[in-house]
């Protein structure tokens, strides 16, 4: 199979900048359109720490191994992409002469899924990939970005209770800031490529926000997008994890302030101090003097607390929802197994690296 020109393929879109922003609510509604394709995301950011272990991707052996492992990551995902199977041999042969990157492999799979559906737009909901935005634009110059902003107090509170980031407000507000700063750089360099919406505006008026997104993507708004109860995908994922249980129901506007019951006043002030400029920019009202900056001492205490809370959260998940636990553990074990294999395979090479002869062979 040969790759058609970029202009003839579905428009690539990345949702940014951070998870727990209402991203599933938007994705599931847009998926009512046959013009739009966005399967459950691979969250390749979890794979990226392994990338140095593959060595030089110009080496066909290394790149083929990468392709095989990314196809395996898609197979290990909690939610499978319907009616799709990828042959890593064929993918490697098609991509061998393209710029070599794990992002290019993942996007080839996404674009093929969109093409199979006849969609005009392929969107990846791997929001953390905002940190690779410039690389993605180099690989896919037509890419656009849906920047979904949420009140940092509500978003950090939601992240604290998820099993996807850290388990402490101090650590998660740093993650929030880094993601929004990356989005700022993208906005500064490519303002015409980015549509920014507030999640709270979506809660207040779903139709207006969805129409705005559809216009930006160049697809038709459908009234069905407002009836999430009729989405089979929403029904499916709501049963898999407590994180997604609300996705089969209309959003509750009052939940925008739920953080007031979930966070202490001290936590709220930590978030407001760190995120004050963003809150003022996007119209979120401060509730504290916002004079409690992050410190090394706060961070050290947060790291200890987060590690204890992480172990407790995984144990609670195992007892509360065995399917969610097993599916998440399977993916985590897959990534851990890749690391072990890559480190094992690289060990003999590292031991011999001082050899001038071997260094000459590598050159």
How would you briefly describe this protein structure?
With 363 residues, this protein is an alpha/beta fold. It has 15 helices and five strands. The chain has helices at 23-30, 60-75, 88-95, 102-117, 133-139, 152-160, 169-189, 199-204, 206-217, 232-240, 259-262, 265-282, 296-320, 322-352, 356-362; strands spanning 11-16, 36-37, 121-124, 144-149, 194-198.
How is this structure best described in words?
Helices cover 54% and strands 6% of the residues. It is of the alpha/beta class and 363 residues long. The protein has a single domain (7-353), classed as Rossmann fold (3-Layer(aba) Sandwich). A five-stranded parallel beta sheet has the order 2-3-1-4-5, sandwiched between helices. Helix 2 (60-75) crosses helix 3 (88-95) and helix 6 (152-160) crosses helix 7 (169-189). The longest helix is centred in the last third of the chain and has 31 residues, at 322-352. The protein is globular. The model is unreliable at 349-363 (pLDDT under 50).
Task: Indicate the topology.
Blueprint: E1 11-16, H1 23-30, E2 36-37, H2 60-75, H3 88-95, H4 102-117, E3 121-124, H5 133-139, E4 144-149, H6 152-160, H7 169-189, E5 194-198, H8 199-204, H9 206-217, H10 232-240, H11 259-262, H12 265-282, H13 296-320, H14 322-352, H15 356-362
Parallel strand pairs: 1-3, 1-4, 2-3, 4-5
């Amino acid at each position: 199979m040969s790759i058609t020109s970029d202009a003839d393929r579905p428009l690539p879109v990345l949702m940014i900048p951070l998870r727990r922003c209402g991203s599933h609510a938007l994705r599931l509604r847009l998926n009512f359109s046959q013009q739009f394709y966005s399967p459950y995301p691979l969250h390749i950011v979890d794979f990226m720490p392994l990338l140095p272990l593959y060595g030089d991707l110009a080496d066909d052996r290394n790149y083929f191994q990468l392709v095989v492992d990314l196809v395996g990551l898609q197979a290990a995902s909690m939610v499978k992409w319907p009616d799709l199977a990828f042959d890593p041999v064929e993918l490697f042969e098609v991509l061998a002469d393209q710029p070599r990157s794990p992002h290019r492999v993942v996007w080839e799979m996404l674009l093929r899924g969109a093409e199979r559906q006849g969609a005009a737009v392929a969107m990846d909901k791997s929001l953390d990939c905002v940190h690779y935005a410039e690389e993605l634009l180099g690989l896919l110059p037509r890419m656009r970005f849906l920047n979904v902003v949420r009140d940092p107090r509500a978003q950090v509170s939601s992240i604290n209770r998820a099993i996807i980031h850290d388990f402490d407000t101090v650590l998660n507000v740093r993650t929030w800031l880094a993601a929004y700063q990356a989005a700022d750089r993208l906005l500064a360099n490519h303002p015409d490529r980015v549509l920014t919406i507030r999640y709270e505006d979506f809660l207040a008026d779903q139709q207006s926000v969805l129409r705005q997104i559809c216009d930006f993507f160049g697809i038709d708004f459908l009234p069905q997008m407002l009836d999430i109860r009729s989405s089979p995908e929403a029904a499916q994922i709501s049963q898999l994890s407590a994180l997604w249980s609300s996705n089969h129901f209309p959003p509750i506007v009052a939940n925008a302030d739920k953080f007031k019951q979930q966070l202490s006043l001290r936590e709220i002030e930590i978030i407001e101090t760190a995120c004050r400029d963003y809150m003022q920019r996007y119209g979120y009202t401060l509730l504290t003097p916002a004079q409690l900056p992050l410190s090394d001492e706060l961070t050290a205490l947060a790291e200890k607390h987060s590690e204890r809370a992480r172990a407790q959260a995984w144990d609670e998940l195992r007892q509360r929802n065995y399917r969610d636990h097993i599916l998440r553990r399977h993916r985590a074990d897959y990534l851990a197994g890749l690391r072990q294999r890559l480190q094992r395979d690289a060990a003999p090479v590292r031991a011999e690296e001082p050899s001038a002869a071997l260094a000459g062979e590598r050159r």
